[in-house]
């Protein structure tokens, strides 16, 4: 992460980070004006005064007349419209695929593409993704990927494998909801590492499709769709853009004495056998299970997933951690028209798990 950005006229932008890389402060020295922004959790201070309180759905301005402001997002989590608590439209944004803003009305707040903070001062126009900054004009990150060794075939500066229509990047280290994997099992394990902790903490089930990723008709690997959530059952989210479904994965939430959560249910098995594709289950004990609909056998892929400390059959000491709400939501609010992706009607219907 950069510590200082210097401009030819002497202006500077300096950054201060915590030990874990979290941005704590930004200081803009533009000409004779100095603006200090402090980031304290979800509270933003400007020059020592509280300015914004960030929420899952928008923000509250803490200066002047305090009121709620809400984001209307598209299917990729881009903030397209900002409205206040009275329903008045304050800002609209239109984006190029790689995040450049080509049309806007109003400029009331800095969180734009993928919900990331855009720094426009002095013409910088960089998005802060957490692990790295991103230049939408170039379609490239400004520094190399901390996880570059996972992607030998791609530049470490690449954004979303050069496919921002299909993928998003939650933090500058991986395009989400899943990376590109060589096998379905590898994709399923990553899903379990990513979602099982949240499923346990939230006491909610989560479910996704595993799908093929192709480029120019050739199979490049496998990934998974963003997870849907449900209390005692969950609908498996569909592959994006009509990609070919090749498997399903879901979780059973926390260790619940009223339910048998560490193995496939009869409904799980019935669904998997109907799809004729392998199904995976992340359990509160920390197992990733695989059910083969042809052999009708269940096997353990790994026992290294985040697990529930109160599960008497716990397999490891990997404590569960939640994920930011915007990553785990089952659906972005679809209040803006989405492009026609020519997805067959048969694939638009969600298949529900019943337990």
TrEMBL record:
It comes from the Bacteria. It comes from Bacteroides uniformis str. 3978 T3 ii. This is RHS repeat-associated core domain protein. InterPro entries: DUF4329, Rhs_assc_core, T6SS_VgrG/RHS. Residues 300-330 are annotated as: Disordered. PANTHER family: PROTEIN RHSA-RELATED, PTHR32305. Residues 186-300 form the DUF4329 domain.
């Amino acid at each position: 992460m950069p510590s200082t950005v210097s401009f030819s006229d002497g202006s500077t932008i300096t950054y201060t980070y915590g030990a874990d890389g979290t941005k704590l402060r930004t200081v803009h020295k533009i000409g004779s004006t100095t603006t200090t922004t402090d980031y304290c959790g979800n509270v933003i201070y400007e020059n020592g005064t509280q300015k914004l309180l960030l929420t899952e759905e928008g923000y509250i301005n803490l200066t002047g007349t305090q009121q709620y402001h809400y984001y209307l997002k598209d299917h990729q989590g881009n903030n397209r419209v900002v409205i206040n608590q009275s329903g008045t439209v304050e800002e609209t944004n239109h984006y190029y695929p790689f995040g450049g803003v080509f049309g806007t009305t109003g400029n009331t707040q800095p969180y734009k593409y993928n919900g990331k903070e855009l720094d426009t001062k002095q013409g910088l126009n960089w998005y802060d993704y957490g692990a790295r900054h991103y230049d939408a004009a170039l379609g490239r990150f400004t520094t190399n990927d901390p996880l570059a060794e996972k992607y030998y075939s791609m530049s470490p500066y690449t954004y979303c494998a050069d496919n921002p229509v299909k993928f998003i990047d939650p933090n500058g280290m991986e395009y989400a909801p899943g990376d590109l994997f060589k096998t379905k099992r590898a994709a399923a394990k990553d899903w379990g590492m990513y979602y099982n902790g949240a499923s346990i903490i939230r006491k909610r089930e989560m479910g996704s499709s595993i799908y093929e990723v192709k480029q120019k008709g050739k199979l490049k690997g496998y990934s998974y769709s963003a997870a849907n959530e449900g209390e005692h059952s969950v609908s498996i989210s569909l592959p994006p853009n009509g990609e070919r479904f090749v498997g399903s994965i879901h979780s059973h939430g926390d260790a619940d004495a009223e339910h048998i959560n560490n193995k496939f249910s009869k409904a799980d098995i019935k669904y998997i056998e109907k799809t004729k594709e392998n199904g995976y289950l992340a359990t509160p004990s920390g197992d990733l299970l695989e059910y083969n609909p042809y052999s009708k056998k269940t096997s353990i892929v790994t026992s290294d997933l985040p697990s529930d400390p109160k599960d008497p059959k716990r397999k490891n000491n990997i404590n569960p951690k939640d994920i930011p709400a915007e990553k785990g939501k089952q659906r972005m609010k679809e209040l803006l028209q989405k492009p026609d992706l020519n997805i067959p009607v048969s694939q638009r219907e969600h298949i529900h798990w019943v337990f």
